[in-house]
Amino acid sequence: MAEGQTNEPAGTEIRPYGADAVSRAAACIARGLPVAVPTETVYGLAADATGGAAVAKIFETKRRPRFNPLIAHVASLDMAERQAVVDPLSRRLAEAFWPGPLTLVLSKRPQSPVHPLVTAGLDTLALRHPRGFGERLIAAFGRPLAAPSANSSGRVSPTTAAYVAADLGPRIRLVVDGGATSVGVESTILKVEGESLRLLRPGGIAAAEIEAVAGREVVRSRGAALEAPGMMRSHYAPRAGVRLDAREIAAGEALLAFGPRRAERAERAVAIINLSETGDLREAAAGLFAALQRLDASGAATIAVEPVPSTGLGEAINDRLRRAAAPREIEEGRS
Ligand code: TXA
Ligand code: MG
Question: pLDDT digits over 61-88, tens only?
Fold first, then answer.
């Protein structure tokens, strides 16, 4: 090897999700380097959850405030139980929805090797068992992986490898490209508290699906202190302003459409993306973040958003849209 060279490529490597991607990603993570990987929800920035320096690099790379805890990802319910106490209702939900877009906030076991930086010092730990590449990587690595969404703090979560590279590119060594993620919004976060089941973040599993398995209503807390410390009001912020519930389009606006019927004067829009012509909320969730990013790239000062119903996955979609539209000046602690 020539002098001055290292055994690492200088730029960001984007590697297709092929035969050696798991071992290549596991090798990077073993050296303490965060790696961007596909999950079924959004791309995650993964590092060894038991290593303080590795976890610190996640926070630095995203420029994320350290008071905002991370989700630790596991490859089995067994691995989860070594980290936290899984109460009977949480177990029922894990059995029904894992692997999948469900995160459970549980009481952390003192003997868990997960580093305190992951939980930001809380005595609870958020755990999720992802599907697909993430699951294979964790199983190969043998330890939980901390992984927030692979975006700069406060920006839109990435659903393609290209967006990860465009946002974090120079700051990370490896992006594993698994194509566009299938769910498109982050996991649903739940916490069992005594008899009640609290919804801390609506996400890729609709509340009604959770309720059908849990046999009780999920409790949504509004207006109280932040439930998940990262659930700040402004988040998912594109550069353009976002105008919700648009019934009529103004000249120069970009239009995020939904369903078969258009807002008035839609022909004025400089760019239009329809989340789902047929009004399918699953399809809309899958395309939401990429649509915001593409409309932002149109250069329009404002993205006008047609109304989206709040049923099913519409709850998560509207949550993300409200955050994308929120005022941005003083907000910190986004994820
Ligand atoms: O789908 C997902 O959940 C993606 C993929 C990569 O797994 N991850 C993700 O991570 O969305 P992140 O860091 O962007 O969002 C995690 C959220 C934050 O709002 C954080 O505050 C909250 O989970 N959280 C983490 N630990 C918590 C805890 N112990 N109690 C309450 N909220 C917690
Ligand atoms: Mg995030």
Answer: 999 999 999 999 999 999 999 999 999 9
254-288 pLDDT, tens digit per residue, is: 999 999 999 999 999 999 999 999 999 999 999 99
Ligand nearest to the CA of 107: 1
Paired residues of 269 in beta bridges: none
- Read off the amino acid at residue 288: L
Beta-carbon contacts of 65 under 8 Å, excluding residues fewer than 6 positions away, are 59, 153, 332, 333
Three-state DSSP class for 271? strand
How many other β-carbons are positioned within 10 Å of the β-carbon of residue 164?
A: 28
Verify whether ligand 1 is closer than 6 Å to residue 83 (CB atom): no
147 CA → ligand 1 middle, Å: 8
Ligand 1 neighbourhood includes 38 CB (under 6 angstroms)? no
Closest residue by Cα to residue 239 from 303, 334, 152: 303
Rg over alpha carbons for the chain, rounded to the nearest Å, is: 20
The answer, yes or no, to whether any atom of ligand 1 lies below 6 A from the CB of 39, is yes
Ligand closest to 147 (CA) is: 1
Amino acid (one-letter) located at 29 = I
Does residue 126's CB lie within 6 angstroms of at least one atom of ligand 1? Answer: yes
| Cβ count within 10 A of residue 54 | 22
